[in-house]
Amino acid sequence: MLLLRLATLAAAIAALFFALLAPASAQSEREVAQSSSPLVYQVETLRNGDGAGEPQLFLGTPMGLIESFMVAGEREEWGRAADALDYANIERSRTNIPREEIARQLYHLMNTTVAIDWATLPDRPDAMDTDASSKNPMAGVARRSLSVATLELGNRRVPIRLARVQEPGGEPVWVFSRQTVANVPALYREYGPTQFEQMLPAPLRKQAVWTLAWWELIALPLVLIVAALAGLATYLGIRRLREGYDTDTKIGGVLQAVHLPVTLLAFAGTFALVRNTVLRLSGPAKDLLDPFQLILVIAAILGIVLAGIEALFEFATNRRTDELEAPGNHQDRNFYTKMSAIRRIVTALLLLAAVGFLLVASNIADTLGFSILASAGVLGLVLAFAARKVLGDIMASVQIAFAQTARIGDAVQFEGQWCFVEKIGFTHLRLRTWDERRVIAPVSAFTNESFENWTKQDSSLMTHVELQLDNRADVDALREEFRNYVQRDEDIVDPEDAICEVVAQDARAKTVRFMARAADPKTGWSMHCRVREHMLAFAARLDATTEPTPAYFAREREVSLEAQSDS
Q1: Which domain holds residue 278?
Q2: Which of 28, 122, 147, 441 has its Cα between 20 and 30 A from that of 275?
Q3: Mean pLDDT over all residues of the chain?
Q4: Which stretches within 113-213 are classed as H helix?
């Protein structure tokens, strides 16, 4: 009985083992079957060439197709070049364009518009990329379709694609796909020569350097000169217009702020207009100039917007300087400080939006390749690490503005100087001292270090004057005079809080402090000086009338050694 059970268990295990092994074997048989036949598009009839005979191009690999097609186009052998195109969709659409003409148009696009990356073109019939990284999902995978470029056509992107096709009983060949060939006439109308170029003599239309023709090589410096003249005319026009307005006015401030950005926009706009109408560059030259041109236009528009906002904000705050510094005007200080923070946030968002639009509109992924994108990413990390101090200062400025530790119009003491906060920028604060000097202080000094804000809660300020007097000076007489004075001075708030007291003493003299409260720091400074002058004058009068020796101002005593030796 036991042997029967063991035999049954062994049979069950064997059955389970063969059941698990069978799908794997079947799967491997399917893979072998698939790998034994080439990966192609099966077509009933391959419609390529001019029908004059067998293909005269090397169509076995993608690189062979492109090389032989470009050689045939360079020799203007359009009948031979037509072997590389699949005209199936063209014939279905009944387009009345000869096959040789479409081959010529495609050669023009490949020669002057498309930047062919020869290093990435596979030279294998199965188009397998054997040099790709193992992390690439297409590494080691056979392909029957391959995109070599992408062009903008209206509101869509049209690929230039190769396809591996096979007729019944024929050999697999690589050709330009039927969809690509069908798009060639529309692409040629978009990227082909303009009427101006067609009117030029044939020698000028021949290729000179890189993908530039001779006429493009001559016209490009002329276009730059025309754009520079347009920028210069705009600069002189705005300067002439600014002469009629003072910079302190709203229009004058805005004109001064947008002077250079508008000049840059005139230069970039003229350059773009002439390029799109007369000098229609293509290929690598277009890929190089398009991002540069777009950067200039975006920078100019962004500069105009930001400069205008900055000028209007400066005009509003400068006109209300006295009101912002007035005692108790906390509402306006809070408002303008918050607006300053919002202005910086809007500026940062506009910059990010401009960079994002530039990356999307310039198609940098297609024009420069993913390797440069990766390099740009590494460079971005390096720059971000190097600019961490600047980024920290920007966040600190927003923190100061929203926490309102220092508001526009606040009176602060910075490094021993009495200043008013005039502007809170991205990385620095602009402070105006009591004697109209400007101090530029880093924002980190107002977030990482302590400072005095004299108008944060209460604009009133307790000021004090210290005098060094003789140890025999009558403090009661000084205190009585000080009490009489504070009752008469209109700038002193709460005369009952005024104090006269001795705060220090040594063998030479004693220090007498006179304290009184002013309504705000500005009047407090004037009151501080008046108190010093008055109490010094009163002590001088007492010093002059004290007998037998002066008893108010400390004096240095000198002893003559010669007199002592004579005695």
Answers
A1: 201-319
A2: 147
A3: 77
A4: 178-191, 195-198, 202-205
Is 303 within 8 Å of 264 (Cβ atoms)?
A: yes
Residues 184, 230 share a domain: no
Query: Rounded CA gap, 123 and 77, in Å?
Result: 24
Residues 213-271: tens digit of each pLDDT: 777 778 788 888 988 999 999 999 988 888 888 766 777 777 888 888 899 899 988 98
Tokens of residue 388, six digits? 């961490």
Residues in the chain: 567
Assess whether 351 and 405 both reside in one domain: yes
- Residues 6+ positions from 13 with CB-CB distance below 8 Å: none
Cα 48 to Cα 91, 111, 173: the distances in Å are: 11, 21, 11
pLDDT of residue 206: 74
**What is the arithmetic mean of pLDDT over 302-327?**
71
User: Vertex 425, ends 250 and 377: CA angle to 5°?
Assistant: 120
State how many domains the chain has. Answer: 4
**Residue labelled with tokens 């008013």:** 420
> Are 341 and 313 within one domain?
no
Determine contact, residues 255/239, Cβ cutoff 8 Å: no
88 or 197: which leads in pLDDT: 88
Question: Using CA atoms, how far apart are residues 146 and 176, in angstroms rounded to an integer?
Answer: 10
Residue that finishes a domain, picked among 394, 426, 458: 458
Distance of alpha carbon 477 from the chain centroid: 68
CA distance 129 to 122: 6
pTM across the whole model? 0.52
> Do 447 and 401 form a contact (C-beta atoms < 8 A)?
no
Over residues 199-212, the pLDDT tens digits come to 777 777 777 676 67
- The per-residue pLDDT for range 391-417, each reduced to its tens digit, is 676 777 777 777 777 887 788 888 888
- Residue identified by tokens 């709460």 is 494
In this structure, are 171 and 221 located in the same domain?
no
> Which is more confident, 18 or 336?
336
Reference 520, options 351, 297, 326, 288; nearest CA is 326
Q: Tell the residue number behind the tokens 């364009």, with chain if given.
A: 97
User: Mean pLDDT throughout 174-181?
Assistant: 93
pLDDT tens digits for 323-340? 665 666 666 666 777 777
Residue 30 and residue 533: Cα distance in Å, rounded?
107
- List pLDDT tens digits, range 84-115: 999 988 888 777 888 899 999 999 888 878 87
Residue 511 and residue 505 in contact, taking contact as beta carbons nearer than 8 Å: yes
Question: What is the C-alpha end-to-end distance of the chain, expressed in Å?
Answer: 144
Domain-embedded: residue 54: no
Token pair belonging to 293:
């041109």
The residues near 525 (Cβ < 8 Å, ≥ 6 apart) are: 418, 434, 463
- At 170 the three-state DSSP class reads coil
**At CA 91, angle to CA 89 and CA 92, rounded to 5?**
65
